[in-house]
Design goal:
With 261 residues, this protein is α/β, with parallel strands linked by helices. The chain has one domain: TIM Barrel (Alpha-Beta Barrel), CATH 3.20.20.70. The chain is built from twelve helices and ten strands. An eight-stranded parallel β-barrel has the order 1-2-3-6-7-8-9-10, surrounded by six helices. Strands 4-5 form a two-stranded antiparallel sheet. Helix 9 links the parallel strand 9 and strand 10. Helix 9 runs parallel beside helix 11, helix 9 runs antiparallel to helix 12 and helix 11 runs antiparallel to helix 12. The longest helix has 15 residues. The structure holds ribulose-5-phosphate.
Amino acid sequence: MDWGKANRMSKVIKPDGNCFYLAMDHGYFQGPVTKLENVGKAAAPLLEFVDALFVTRGVLRAQISPSTETAIILRVSGGTSMASPDLANEGITTSIDEILRLNVAAVGFSVFVGSDYEHQSLLDLAELVNRCEPYNIPVMAVTAVGREMEKRDARYLAMACRICSEIGASVVKTYYCEDFEKVTTGCPVPVVIAGGPKTNNDLEVLEFVYKGMQAGAIGVNLGRNIWQNDRPRAMARALQGIIHQSLTPKQAFELFQTFER
Ligand code: 5RP
């Protein structure tokens, strides 16, 4: 791997081989999501626990300090909204010039396998990889399902992740599911877990992250289950414990309960 790409990869995958990304990109199609009305304010108390922040260029420029030491993964897909009947009709939103100007560690792009827009979506991923590779920018593919949450099973996710890796993604983000090792073993590049809607049970989040990592994921790209938690710093600290300190869910939950009480 060329020095520049290795340097960027080292910012998004830490020396222990694991990673903790804080996802705050939701506004790109959902608008001002509850507790993410101001990304800069929501992110500030959490950045000390995470390795990278996943945001769009608009939020990055407006609300994140250029002196941040947290790596930035830039969301570069978009083009649809919650008001649209089909969320899969996305494309590339950000030029390679802009990606370079923003000096980001990596970019993230959603792919909608099995949707009416599958062909366009996969060719757009290929185009993004083709534009980014000459400049050593890693691409994180996001296996998006739109509103079709029932798609989140091992058979579908393993296929989607494998396809993204074959097209050239350096990292693939997907959902945790039963038989998750089928997803990770079939994917030749690192897999990270997305969270999905906020759960009602804090221990549940710690458990699925732990189980996902036991099954081969290298970490998470997690949003709502952190910043919609009533104690987001405690949740971020507990997740950091699982990801980088090999804590069990029980140990991490104890940390969550006692942190800053
Ligand atoms: C939203 C995304 C998010 O980055 C991803 O879903 C992780 O966030 P959450 O844990 O809230 O699901 O791609 O468009």
